Amino acid sequence: MILALPIILMITVNEISRAIITEPPHVFNGQTAINSRLSLKEKCTWTCHYNTDFCKANHVRIDSGWFPTTDKAYYGIIHLLDATTAYNFMNVFMFLFLIPLVMWWLFVKSLRIQSEIKRLKKAAND
Q1: Are 25 and 32 in contact (CB under 8 A)?
Q2: Residue 35 per-residue DSSP state
Q3: pTM value surpassing 0.90
């Protein structure tokens, strides 16, 4: 159940967002997206997906001096996903399943390590 909570939360946030977005949705490959394709300066839309420079100029809140560093990771991930010839599937697999699974595994591992530390401290005090 703990593994499903982040996925359930993400779906809930997406569906609530769908109800409050007033702009026309973006349609591509016969699929209707939640967000619009309009170029809006006050929030990210599909324009940001297709034009990263527009997003950086209007929505990114970090110092632009970091862009050379963050761009390597950002574009590296995009090129990695694009190289699979199954970009959409790999995007969902990586960001919806793989990364949350790794985070969950690391969380459980940290709990086990904490438990072991407590056990060792208790044994040392006895």
Answers
A1: yes
A2: S
A3: no
